[in-house]
Write a structure and sequence with these properties.
Keywords: Nucleus, Ribosome biogenesis, rRNA processing. The chain is mainly alpha-helical. The chain has seven helices and three strands, in the order H-H-H-E-H-E-E-H-H-H.
């Protein structure tokens, strides 16, 4: 709502941008009674880790730099009538790597899991894996077909009976 209010206050110069903004779903912000600038409103909506998974689409470089400092917020911008999704910021990449390393099981726990499996007999044994041997195939089924008999003259008898008709051209 704050972005639409800001576009209305800027007048006829940004009327097209206002129409485009109104087509999208309008999200309620915390400052609906006393609106703030559009960039401040967008930053306040993604402040707490972007729980609603918003994308920020802007041409404002200041806003883009502030968004890049926050982890997990995709950034869209327009270059020559084409919407471009910006590559993830270093903050976002570092955040994802930290999440992945936290989810992995530590090495000492992996070793203890293997030992417990061996004690209970659940560990896979190497002797269980056997490959199936390929067997020799039979003859090619097409080579086993019977040969077709040839006619005496090498021509079909029905070919002599057929007559060719000439087409008459209509003028």
């Amino acid at each position: 709502r704050c972005v639409i209010k800001e576009l209305e206050s800027l007048g006829k110069a940004l009327y097209g941008a206002k129409l485009i903004a109104q087509r999208f779903q309008v999200r309620n912000c915390s400052h609906h009674k006393d609106p703030v600038s559009g960039s401040a409103c967008l930053l306040s909506m993604i402040e707490e880790g972007n729980p609603h998974h918003f994308f920020i689409a802007t041409q404002d470089q200041d806003l883009a730099n502030k968004v890049k400092k926050k982890a997990g917020v995709p950034l869209l911008f327009i270059i020559q009538n084409t919407m471009v999704l910006d590559k993830p910021s270093p903050k976002s990449v570092a955040f994802v790597q930290k999440l992945q390393t936290d989810q992995l099981v530590p090495e000492h726990q992996k070793q203890s899991i293997v030992e417990l499996k061996e004690k209970t007999g659940l560990a896979k044994q190497d002797g269980e894996k056997r490959r199936k041997r390929k067997r020799a195939g039979g003859p090619n089924p097409l080579s086993c077909l019977k040969k077709k008999k040839k006619t005496q003259e090498g021509q079909e008898p029905s070919a002599e009976k057929k007559k060719r008709r000439k087409r008459k051209r209509n003028r």
